[in-house]
Amino acid sequence: MSKIVESIAFLQQQKWIDLTHEVSAEIPYFQSFKPLSEDTLCTLEADGFYAKQYHIVTQYGTHLDAPIHFAAGKKTLDELELHQFMLPLVVIHKEEAVAKNADYCLTVKDIEAFEKEHGPIPAGSFVAFASDWSKRWSDHTAYYNLDESGQAHTPGWSMEALKFLNEERQVTAIGHETLDTDTAIDCTKNGGLLGELYWLSQNKFQVEVMTNLSQVPAVGSAIVLGVPKIKGAPGFTIRAFAVVPKE
């Protein structure tokens, strides 16, 4: 038996955790976009087979942002390398901090504290920010979290943390539970998503609107991404899951 087949048998015995939200017309989405819509093209009764057509924006539900989403001349979805769709998964758990402060910004100090406990973040890994924001998913008001003035309050990454992960740790990708990379407050203050712009400009990708990260240990797991190969796409809805060591 080959080592690959043996590895598959081993992985199938571990715990598999879905990191993906179900896609429908009712889910939260970025307000510049439109919700999912669908048409039934063929039915079993009339045509002998069932087929539907979906109208969906590239950044909808749990999705992957390709570098070109923000950065001209960088990689499109179909240009990402296959081996990047299965990576060591590192999860920085800040659920308690976000529960106390919806504007929480993950910093280099948070990463240093994480590494003091778990060791250096390996190069080539996928680093996820676990905030428990996904638990607000079924309540649009709570998920968008707008105040009386219309300002959103959502957590995110600091620019310094993103630069540290890129320049000092050479990680391959990042992920989070919110719609955006930056905190909503930073986006307003800076007049745009500067953290997201920086990350994608490095020709690196990210996964947004993740779920169930609270169930994944800080280290020792793998993430697998099911990514369609759509020519020239700036991103698309994906299936993401973690393979976690069975206790």
TrEMBL record:
Gene3D superfamilies: Putative cyclase. It comes from the Bacteria. InterPro entries: KFase/CYL, KFase_sf. GO terms for molecular function: arylformamidase activity. SUPFAM superfamilies: Putative cyclase (SSF102198). It holds the Pfam family Cyclase. The keyword Hydrolase applies. Keywords: Hydrolase. One of its GO terms (biological process) is L-tryptophan catabolic process to kynurenine. This is Metal-dependent hydrolase. It comes from Enterococcus florum. The lineage of its organism: Bacteria, Bacillati, Bacillota, Bacilli, Lactobacillales.
